[in-house]
Every structure is written in structure tokens, then in C-alpha cells.
């Protein structure tokens, strides 16, 4: 089916969609600082409290791929409005929660709402912004939002929870209602963009497999990678994901159209998105834990120290938006991730629990954030380029899914590495606990540097094989062949 025409006034629509994306990413972290108050007032056990954050990430990461395909099949405006409606209603449920299960269910429904709204919003951005400078500028801002919203959630959550923890959910309702009202008036109509029906088996196996993968990774970081729950969950995830892959090969209308896998920019862009998510979320949580566990700062002070990182990240997105058209997104991607890798090595080398926090943490972390900001813009551009508007929702879902699943893996891997190294030092008789914690987190940053370096290599591979032709390639349509 044909794509709707580009909007005559795209930028008001873009900013409406940007607010949607900001809300969805913000809610991954906004409750973090409010958790102690939530535990006291709602009655969570220490082990159950983690589900306030994990429930959102689990459902969001597991369902976003399905959300992207649903946007192409059922209409992007329809999916965005449905997603935001679920988001608002679930936020109200969270505010009213008097029992732990009510809050966890509310957070899971929030995650489902975000999974439906986020890929639809990105697909609509690609639809309403004309190709060229406008789209490049828009994607630069979009990438900045994706990177800045998480740390901003920590800062905003700290401020709101000082008054009442319920406010971290209350804030969603008026903004979400405004998005729904203006979205129904401003967004392109809710027509279907591709023919065919939803691959039900593929949707069930893929979504369940992704959910179990995210759950298994999160549990592995807490209970150990050899625990029965972790092993059984990850094993089930592998079986379901293999069944999903087999289904995609044979299905008449697969959840992931086979034509997308013949587009190098999509395949490598999705890979880069996963690696970037690992480095982004993994280094972010490592830094947050270091400021609080090793240095002893309060949550609000730690959040304030993240502000320079936010500024540098957004500066990186702005620079990338200006130079990407001249240099090509693959060059900017490899340069940004390369800079981040170097900065992470620097950071890991100087991290010390007792040294000046600005020199041993904030400065190298800010340089890493600048490189990350430049790279995150390119991931969204590359992963959704050379694909027709008919499949942009599915491609968007793939990019966002890779980023979220990569983020969950990054958090689990880096926290496990840090904890294991710290435990070994303390068991060996290390006298300074703060320094032992900081040393473990330094090792985690070395791992993050390696992940960023691999991402930079992906950018170089894109540049070598396809960087010169990514703008000229024929877009892939639904059911069509990939460009040679």
C-alpha cells in the first residue's frame, strides 16, 4: 500500500512525537530514586522491589518488535494512540497502587504502552519529515532524546520523590492525554501500510523469547548465571527464539519481512544499536552506582553530577546532525563509538573512590557521552535507511528492540563483572571497601570500552562496504528484494 504524503507542517508533528519518545524512555529510570519510599509505603520485599523497574524494561524490550510490525499493519497513528492510552491508564493504576502486585502490573502495562508507541512514533517521524537536511536534523534530535531521557529520569525522579513518590507517575497523565488529543488531530491517518495479516506464531514466539531473554539476563545478574531460574529461563528463550527464526524463514507474512535482512544498513544498524545500548546503559548504571556506593553521595547529588554528561551527550547529537550529511553516518558512527571507547579506557584508568570526582569521573564520562551522542544519532539513521516507508515501522522496532535488549544485557553484564571483582578483592582482604567497589566498577568500564570498540568496527564495516552507497540505494518495499 502506498505511503501517506509528507506533512505540510512537519515540525509541530515532530515535536509531538518527540515528547512521546521522551516519556517512554524517561520511565525506564524515573522511579529509580523513589524506590525506597515505594518500598516503605506499598510494602515491597527487598527482592520484589526490583520488579518496579524490571517489569517495565521486561515488557518494553519484549514487545517493541511486535509494536513496530503492528504499526505497519494496523496504522501508526492508531498504534501510537493505543500505546499512549495504555501508558496513561497504567500510570493512574500506579498512583493508586496499595499493594505490590498493583504497582508491578501497572509498570508492565506501561511497558506495553511504550512498546506500541515508540516504534510507531519513529516511523511517523520518517514519514512526515522529508528526506534531506530536515530528516537529518530530526534524527539528530531524536537520538539526543533517546540518550538524554534516561539520565534525566533519574534527576527528575529525585526532585519529584522529595515531595511524593506518586508524582513520578502523576506527571505522565496530563502529558499523555495531550499527546493523544493532539495526535488525533495532527498525525497522518491511521491507514494500513502493508498488506497481509500478523504472523501470530511468530509474534508469540518472538515476543515470549525476547521477554524471557531479558528476564533471564536480569535474573542472572541478581541470582547468579548458574542458578536454576537463570539457566531454565535463558534455555527457554533460546528455544523460542530459534522457533521464531525458523518461522520467519517459512511464513508467508513473517513478523520480520525477509527483505529487511538483505539490507546491510538495517542489519548492521541493528547490530550497532544493540552494542550501543550495552555501552550506554551499562556505563550509565556503573557510573550511578559508583557515585553512590563507592563515593557515598546521596541519590540527588549523584543525579546532579550527571547533568554535565547529559549536556555533552546532547552536544554530540547536535554535532553529528551537522556533519553527518557531509561525512556519512557510518563515518560518524565509527568515530563517535571510537571516541567513547577511548574515553572509557581513560575513565577506567583514573577511576578512584578518593580522587577528585570531576577529574576521575565527570570529565572522562562527559567525553564518553559526547561520543555516544554522536553515535546514537547515526544508529537510528542507518537502521532505518534504505527501507521504504511501508516497512519503516518494522525497521524502527528492530532498532529500538536491539537497543533495549542490548541495554538489559549491558546492565546485567557490567554489574556482574563489577560485583564479582569487588567480592574477590574483599575476600582477599582488601582493607578499603570503597576502593574495592570502585576497582570492580573500573573493570566494568574496561568491558564497556571493548563493547564500544566493537561497535566502532561495525561502523567501519558499513563505511567500507556500503558507506558510499547508503544514500543512493533503492529502498526496500514490503515483500520486495533488497538492493544489490
Account of the protein in words:
This protein is mainly alpha-helical. The protein has 18 helices and no strands. It folds into two domains: 188 residues, MFS general substrate transporter like domains (Growth Hormone, Chain: A); 218 residues, MFS general substrate transporter like domains (Growth Hormone, Chain: A, Up-down Bundle), CATH 1.20.1250.20. Helix 10 runs parallel beside helix 17. The longest helix is centred in the last third of the chain and has 36 residues. The relative contact order is 0.14.
What's a concise summary of this model?
The chain is built from 18 helices and no strands. By secondary structure, the chain is mostly helical.
Strand content: under 5%
- Oligomer state of the chains in this structure: single chain
| Helix-strand pattern | HHHHHHHHHHHHHHHHHH
At CATH level 2, the architecture of the largest domain is: Up-down Bundle
What name does CATH use for the topology of the largest domain? Growth Hormone, Chain: A
Main β-sheet description: none
Find the count of extended strands (DSSP E, 2+ residues): 0
The general outline is globular
Mean pLDDT, all residues:
87
Query: Gap between N and C termini, in Å?
Result: 23 Å
Q: How many domains is the backbone divided into?
A: 2
Indicate the radius of gyration in whole angstroms: 21 Å
What is the C-level CATH assignment of the largest domain?
Answer: Mainly Alpha
Pfam family, one: MFS_1
Subcellular location: Cell membrane
Protein name: EmrB/QacA subfamily drug resistance transporter
Transmembrane segments: 12-36, 48-67, 79-98, 110-129, 141-161, 167-188, 200-218, 224-247, 259-284, 296-320, 332-350, 362-384, 405-423, 443-462
Amino acid at each position: 500500500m502506498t505511503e501517506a504524503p509528507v506533512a505540510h507542517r512537519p515540525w509541530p508533528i515532530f515535536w509531538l512525537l518527540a515528547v512521546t519518545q521522551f516519556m517512554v524512555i524517561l520511565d525506564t529510570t524515573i522511579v529509580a530514586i523513589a524506590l525506597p519510599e515505594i518500598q516503605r509505603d506499598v510494602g515491597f520485599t527487598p527482592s520484589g522491589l526490583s520488579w518496579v523497574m524490571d517489569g517495565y524494561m521486561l515488557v518494553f524490550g519484549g514487545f517493541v518488535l511486535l509494536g513496530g510490525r503492528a504499526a505497519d499493519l494496523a496504522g501508526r497513528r492508531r498504534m501510537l494512540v493505543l500505546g499512549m492510552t495504555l501508558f496513561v491508564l497504567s500510570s493512574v493504576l500506579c498512583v493508586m497502587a496499595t499493594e505490590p502486585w498493583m504497582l508491578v502490573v501497572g509498570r508492565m502495562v506501561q511497558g506495553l504502552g511504550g512498546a506500541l508507541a515508540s516504534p510507531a512514533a519513529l516511523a511517523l517521524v520518517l514519514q512526515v519529515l522529508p528526506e534531506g537536511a530536515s530528516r537529518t536534523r530530526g534524527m539528530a534530535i531524536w537520538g539526543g532524546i533517546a540518550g538524554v531521557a534516561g539520565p534525566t529520569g533519574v534527576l527528575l525522579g529525585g526532585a519529584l520523590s522529595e515531595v511524593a513518590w506518586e508524582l513520578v507517575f502523576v506527571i505522565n497523565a496530563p502529558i499523555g492525554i495531550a499527546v493523544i488529543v493532539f495526535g488525533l488531530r495532527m498525525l497522518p491517518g491511521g491507514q494500513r501500510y502493508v498488506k497481509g495479516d500478523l504472523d501470530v506464531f511468530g509474534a508469540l514466539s518472538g515476543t515470549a523469547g525476547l521477554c524471557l531473554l531479558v528476564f533471564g539476563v536480569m535474573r542472572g545478574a541478581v541470582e547468579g548465571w548458574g542458578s536454576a531460574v537463570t539457566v531454565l529461563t535463558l534455555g527457554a528463550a533460546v528455544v523460542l527464539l530459534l522457533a521464531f527464526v525458523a518461522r520467519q524463514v517459512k511464513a508467508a507474512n513473517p513478523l520480520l519481512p525477509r527483505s529487511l535482512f538483505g539490507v546491510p544498513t538495517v542489519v548492521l544498524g541493528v547490530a550497532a544499536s544493540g552494542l550501543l545500548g550495552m555501552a550506554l546503559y551499562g556505563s550509565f548504571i556503573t557510573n550511578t552506582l559508583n557515585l553512590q556506593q563507592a563515593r557515598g553521595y546521596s541519590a540527588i547529588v549523584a543525579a546532579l553530577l550527571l547533568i554535565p554528561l547529559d549536556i555533552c551527550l546532547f552536544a554530540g547529537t547536535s554535532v553529528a546532525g551537522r556533519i553527518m550529511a557531509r561525512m556519512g553516518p557510518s563515518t560518524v558512527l565509527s568515530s563517535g563509538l571510537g571516541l567513547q571507547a577511548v574515553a572509557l579506557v581513560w575513565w577506567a584508568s583514573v577511576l578512584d573512590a578518593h580522587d577528585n570526582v570531576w577529574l576521575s569521573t565527570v570529565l572522562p564520562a562527559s567525553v564518553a557521552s559526547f561520543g555516544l551522542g554522536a553515535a546514537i544519532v547515526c544508529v537510528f539513521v542507518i537502521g532505518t535507511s534504505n527501507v521504504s516507508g511501508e516497512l519503516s515501522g518494522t525497521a524502527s522496532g528492530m532498532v529500538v528492540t536491539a537497543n533495549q535488549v542490548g541495554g538489559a544485557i549491558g546492565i546485567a553484564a557490567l554489574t556482574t563483572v563489577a560485583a564479582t571483582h569487588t567480592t574477590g578483592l574483599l575476600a582477599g582482604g582488601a582493607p578499603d571497601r570503597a576502593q574495592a567497589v570502585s576497582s570492580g566498577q573500573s573493570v566494568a568500564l574496561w568491558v564497556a570500552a571493548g563493547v564500544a570498540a566493537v561497535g566502532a568496527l561495525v561502523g567501519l564495516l558499513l563505511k567500507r562496504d556500503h558507506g558510499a552507497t547508503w544514500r543512493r540505494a533503492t529502498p526496500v518495499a514490503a515483500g520486495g528484494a533488497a538492493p544489490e
